[in-house]
Amino acid sequence: MNPKLSLKLAYAFATEHGLARETSEIQALKTHWKNEDGELDSTRVRKGFIVQLFRERGLLDEFIRERWPFGHSRDGPQKMAMYDCARKEHMAMLAGDTQEAPDALASQPTKPGDDLSSPPKTLPNGRASKTILPPVRDAESLVARVRLLDPNQAERNHEDAVKDLLVRLNIHVAAIQFQRGRIDLCVQDQSHKTVAVFEVKRSIVSAPERDKARRQANDYAAQSGSTIFVITDGNYYEIYDRRRGSDYHSMLAGRFQLAAFREEDSKNLDLLRDVASRGPGSAGGSSR
Hints:
Layout: H1 7-16, H2 20-27, H3 42-56, H4 60-67, H5 76-96, H6 139-147, H7 155-168, E1 176-180, E2 183-188, E3 194-200, H8 207-224, E4 228-232, E5 236-241, H9 248-251, E6 252-257, H10 266-276
Parallel strand pairs: 3-4
Antiparallel strand pairs: 1-2, 2-3, 4-5, 5-6
């Protein structure tokens, strides 16, 4: 079995099933997305889009059965997840207009007037930064897990991924609460006071999705008395501190993406470590 999905076979299959227009759009796709070797890789992105197209049209199983048997093997889902990750990162780049520096989904200092509708374009020095593993326990398995997240999965899958990160940051499992009223997930201190609210969505790629999540999280934080609120899809995180000001620009304390983590993102991950130090039974300190 060929482990690689053949775009030639996929395009032919799609055309046979009345998807010629969609196929042409995928073939014409241009991207600045780079693979782990730092090379432009439109092929992997296109494979992500063709798999998603078949999934949406209920044709994926038939395609795999007839044209790509490897997809039903033990390693098939991981291969498709890799393709889908490239597709989602390409979409995130478009949403953030990151074409000037496609490597740099990085954490820049924020100030009033910064655009919160998308991730930052470049590092402060205008250069891209190399991706590293987040400084948490068993980071490789965590990144592998978040790369498998998909907007089509149940929201609880994304919530569980958030919990996984928090536990690796030394937040005691007893401090992590699901579905407290309308709050998706929150962290409580030793007196059971909510110290951080997490609004977890299946996707926050687009600006409208982030805007909605931001409004909800801020409202829930105000209602619970929490100073910290976070919006996330399990991979991309934006952390807000309500003590910093009255508008989102002022409140934004930091952001990072686990699957595209940069060295300069560590200080933003430390914002969640600070939450860890306030939970019951916390080990405290850093797990780096």
